[in-house]
C-alpha cells in the first residue's frame, strides 16, 4: 500500500461523508449522484492500486 492508494481511499471516504451530509440536508439529487459516483471511483481506484491491478 503506497501513498497514492491511501490518498485515493481517504478522498473517497471524505466524498462519501459528503454524500451522506448532502442527503440529510436535502440538496439536489444531481449533486448527490455526482458526489456518489466520484466517491465510488476514488474508492475503487484506491483498492485497485492496493492490489496492483491499476
Question: What topology emerges from the helices and strands here?
Answer:
Elements: H1 3-25, H2 29-51
Helix pairs in contact: 1-2
Architecture overview:
The model has no long low-confidence stretch (mean pLDDT 92). This protein is an all-alpha fold. The relative contact order is 0.22. It has two helices and no strands. The two termini are 12 Å apart. The longest helix is centred in the N-terminal third of the chain and has 23 residues, at 3-25. 85% of the residues lie in helices and 0% in strands. It is elongated, with a radius of gyration of 12 Å. The protein has helices at 3-25, 29-51.
Poorly predicted runs = none
Hey, roughly how much beta strand do the residues contain?
under 5%
The major β-sheet equals:
none
Mean pLDDT: 92
Order of helices and strands: HH
Q: Can you give the helix content as a percent range?
A: over 70%
State the total count of DSSP E strands.
Answer: 0
The dominant shape is elongated
Radius of gyration: 12 Å
Distance between the termini: 12 Å
Give the helix tally.
2
**Helix and strand composition category:** mainly alpha
What's this, in brief?
This protein has helices spanning 3-25, 29-51. It is mainly α.
Keywords:
single chain, 54 residues, mainly alpha, 85% helix
